[in-house]
Design goal:
two-stranded antiparallel ribbon, alpha/beta, 148 residues
């Protein structure tokens, strides 16, 4: 009888990946990043363990969306005060803080529990090509070019 191998948390070794978002479509990029954070591409994937890798996303300003989402996609949140609904379009957020768009898209693809919150802490998003994680020697992730 074979037993299922369950890795111990100290046995997992994390890698660091570098993803260039220049010219990429937001949803397709977010699914690739979420897969790396969850660790589903690893042979030792275990659903109840945090076995994903660290991901650094650069050039968040160069992200794209298809169709009319630039004008019509709305992000909203509530301040907690009466009448405190704040709604912003993709276009306004992209101009002000483009790294929020990638972080939010990836966050919504992660598990909705404490494990997902811990996974999201391993994501770093930068609006330009400069990042301060060169000491981790990030491996570039080949993201296929998208044509629409």
């Amino acid at each position: 009888m074979q037993k299922t191998y369950k890795p111990k948390p100290h046995e997992l070794e994390r890698k660091c990946f570098l993803v260039d978002a220049q010219g990429q479509i937001l949803g397709r990029l977010a699914t690739r990043v979420a897969t790396l954070l969850i660790g589903k591409d690893e042979p030792f994937y275990t659903p109840h363990l945090e076995c994903g890798d660290q991901v650094i996303v650069i050039n968040a300003r160069g992200i794209r969306v298809s169709g009319r989402k630039v004008k019509e996609k709305v992000y909203q949140h509530y301040t907690g005060y009466p009448g405190g609904r704040v709604a912003e379009t993709f276009e306004t957020i992209h101009a002000r803080k483009p790294e929020f768009l990638i972080t939010e898209a990836v966050r919504r693809m992660l598990p909705k529990n404490r494990l997902g919150e811990r996974m999201l802490k391993h994501l770093r998003v930068y609006p330009d090509a400069e990042h301060r994680h060169s000491a981790q020697k990030p491996l570039p992730v080949p993201v296929p070019p998208v044509t629409i």
